Amino acid sequence: MYYAKVFYDLEKMKRLIFILLLFGLNLPGFAQKITISGTITEEGTGEHLIGANIYDKISQKGTVANQFGFYSYTTNSDSLDLFFSFVGFQTQHIRLKAGKDTVINVSLMPDGNLQEVVVSASEMDQIQEVSRMSSINVPIKQIKELPALMGEVDVFKVLQLLPGVQSGTEGGSGLYVRGGGPDQNLILLDGVPVYNASHLFGFFSIFNADAINNVELIKGGFPSRYGGRLSSVIDVSMKEGNMQEFKGEGSIGLIASKVTVEGPIKKDQTSFIFSARRTYLDLLARPIIKAATSGNENVGYYFYDLNGKINHVVNDKNRLYLSVYSGDDKVYSRYKDFYVYDNERTDYDEEFGLRWGNFITALRWNNVINSRLFSNHTFTHSRYKFDLFSNYEEKITGAGVNETNIYSERYFSGIRDWAVKSDFDYIPNPDHYIRFGTNVIFHKFSPGVYASKSSEAENDLRLGADELNSVEYALYAEDDINLSPRLKANLGLHYSGFLTEDQHYNSLQPRIAARYLVNSSTSLKASFVTMTQFIHLLTNAGLGLPTDLWVPATPTIGPQEAMQVALGGVRNFKGFEITLEAYYKTMNGLIEYKDGATYLNLDEDWQDKVAVGEGRSYGAEFLIQRKVGKISGWLGYTLSNTERRFDEVNFGKWFPYKYDRRHDVSFALTHEWKDNKDFSLAWVYGTGNAVSLPTQRYEGLEISRYGGFSRPNVEYYESRNNFRNRDYHRLDLSFSWWKTKRWGERKWTLGIYNVYNRMNPFFMDLGSDNQGNRKVMQYSLFPVIPSFSYSFKF
C-alpha cells in the first residue's frame, strides 16, 4: 500500500514542478531573440570558474556560470556589451553584434590585484546582488595562506573561523553550525555525500587543499537543490586537471607530505589530476619503538588521502568526468615474543588495531541540451567503514607437542551508498534561472556488529544489529527570479521520501529567499526554509574515537526536521563585504544516548538506547570580509544560544547544548607585504563549552547479593551541562617566503600555533589536590607549537 502512496506523492510533486516551470515559461518577455552561451575557464589550466559573472552593460542585466562553468544569457537586442568577471581574475570585455544564437567560450587570466573596470552597475558578483543569504565562499588562496596546525593546511579549520560555525573541541576539525551537530552537515565532495570527514581522531579533515577548486559553506537559506541534512551544506569541488600542460605541486611538513600532479592526456580534450597525502609519524617512530622493546613491539598511526579525476571532452556539448577518493586512518599495535617452560616453547603474536575511512567514486555526464538548457547526470558509490580488531595467535612446540591456538575479536560498522541523480539548469531569460532535478540513494547500514572466533570454540560468536537497507529519493525545483529591478527571490520546493522496514516517510519542504536592493551597494535579505533528515548519527560521548554509528529512521525512531528563518542586510563598501544576519532555528526528532548507554551494549537494540527530543538555536552574526588585494581576510562575531530537551534526560527540562557558545570572535588576516613574502595571523575567542559536573556528593548504600553492604560515593548532578569551561582564545601566526627557480617555485613556511601559550581546556573533570580536597581539574592539549613546511610547484 505504501508503494502506491509513494507513486501518488511523486506524481503530486511532478505537477508542482510543472506549474513552476510553466510559470517561468509564460512570463512576459520570455520570447527572446538571441542567446549567448558558453563556458568560462581559467586561462592556462582550463579549470571551470564556478559562479563567474556575465553582465550586459546595455540591458544592465546578467547571469552567472553554474558549477561546471556553463552560462546562458538571452536578450532582445542584437548589440551586446558583455563583461566577464570572477573574484581574483582580470575582467574580460567583449562587444559584439549577434544576429543569431552564439557560443562564446571565455578564459580569464588570474590576477592577485583586481584591475578596476569602470562599469557603474556591472558588479554582478557582489554579495548584495544575489538572493541567497547565509552563504560564504572562501578563496582557496586564502585557505592556503592562513596559519595551520602543525603546518597542515586544512579547509575545515578555516571554515571554523567563520561566524555561526563552532569547532567543538580544541584542535578538532568538527563543524557545529548554528546549533546543529556534525551529522547535520551535508558535506559534498564533487556532489557525493561524505559521512566522516575527519583524520587523526578529528584533528584534520580529509580534504587536500592542493586538489580543491572551490569551497562553499551554506548555513541557511538553503536552495531547493540541497536536501537530506538540517544545519549546513559544505560543497567542495575538486580540480578538473590542466588541459594545456603538465603541472605539479607538493609539500613536506611536520607530520605529513603531499604531492599533486595534473596535465593533459590529450591536449584540450582529456586531462587528469592525481593527489596523494600521507602522514609519516609511524615511519619515524618505528625504529625508536623497536629499539626500546628489543624489536618485539611495533606501534604506530597514519592516515592517507588519494584523489583522482579524469576529465574528457566528448564534443562541444558533452563532457565526462570520473572522480575517485580513497582515505583511511589506522592505529595499530603488534607485539611478538616467546617463552620456554618445561621443555615447551610458546610463541605468541598479539595485534590490536583501529581503522576507519571513506571510499567515494562518481561518474558524471554534462550535456548542453541547447543554449538555454544544461543537464548533469551523476552515478555514485560511497562507503564509510569503522573497524576495531584484536588478534591473538599462540604456537606451542616441544616434545610431542605442536599446537596452535587462535583467537580474534572484531567490532565493525559503516554505511554504503549507491546513488543516481539528474540536475537541470534552464535559463529562459535574464529574469529567471530555473533548476530542477531528482535523485535516488540506496543505503545499506551496518549499525554495529561484534564478532569473535576461537580455535577452541565450536561456533563463532556474533552480536549486534542486522544490516538495514533503505531507499531515499528526492525531487526539487527552484527559480531565481527578478520580480522587479530591486526585488529578487529564490523560490523553490524540495520533496523527499524514505522507505525503510515497510515504513514510508515523506516530506515537502518549501524554500524561500529574497533580497531587496536598497541602493547599488546595500541590500536587505530574508529567508525561510524547512529541512528533513532521514538518517541519524549515534555519537558516543567522550574524547571522540570514531565509533559513530549511522542509522536510518525506523518505524520507532522518526526523521529529524528543522525550520529556520533568517533576516539580514549586506553592504559592499570599497572592496569590503559587510554582512549582518539574525536567525532562529528549531529542530525535532533529535536523538542521543540515554544516560549510561553506549555503542558497546550489543545485547540491546540501538533504538532502546536512545532518547528522542528537540532543539532550538538563535543568534546574530556579523562578518566583514575582503577577498582580494595585498591585504585580505575577515573579522567575524557571533552571539548565539543553543539548547536541547529530551523527556528522559535532565528531568525533561531544556539544557545548553554541549557546544553552545554565547560569544564567538574570529579575526583572520593575510598580508602579501612583498612580491615574494607574506604574513598571516588568526585570532579566535569563544565562550567556554558547557559540561556536566556534580554539585553534591553523598554516601549511598549498596547491598551485595552475597550478603553484606557497602557505602559507595554517589554524585548528584543538578542539571545537564550545568558548568562552563574557561573561555577559549588563541593566536596563530605564519610567515612564508618563496623564490622562482628554473624548474618552478619553492616556498618555505614557518608557523606558530597558540603563540602566547594559552592553556585552553580540552576537557574538565573532578579531581583532588595534594590535600585530598575535591576540585575541578582542567586538562589541556596544545601548548605553543612551532611548525615548518617546504612546498614546491613545477
TrEMBL record:
Biological processes, Gene Ontology terms: siderophore transmembrane transport
Record keyword Chloroplast present: no
Classification via Gene3D superfamilies: Carboxypeptidase-like, regulatory domain, TonB-dependent receptor, beta-barrel domain, TonB-dependent receptor, plug domain
GO cellular component terms listed in the entry, alphabetical order: cell outer membrane
Subcellular location field: Cell outer membrane
Membrane topology: Multi-pass membrane protein
Domain called TonB-dependent receptor-like beta-barrel: residue spans: 293-755
Domain annotation TonB-dependent receptor plug: ranges: 151-229
GO molecular function terms attached to this record: siderophore uptake transmembrane transporter activity
Matches recorded under InterPro entries: Beta-barrel_TonB, Beta-barrel_TonB_sf, CarboxyPept-like_regulatory, Plug_dom, Plug_dom_sf, TonB-dep_rcpt-like
Superkingdom of origin organism: Bacteria
Principal subcellular localization: membrane
Pfam families, alphabetized: CarbopepD_reg_2, Plug, TonB_dep_Rec_b-barrel
Keyword terms of this UniProt record: Cell outer membrane, Membrane, Receptor, Signal, TonB box, Transmembrane, Transmembrane beta strand, Transport
Family listed: Belongs to the TonB-dependent receptor family.
Protein name from the UniProt record: Outer membrane receptor proteins, mostly Fe transport
Source organism: Cyclobacterium lianum
Lineage: Bacteria, Pseudomonadati, Bacteroidota, Cytophagia, Cytophagales
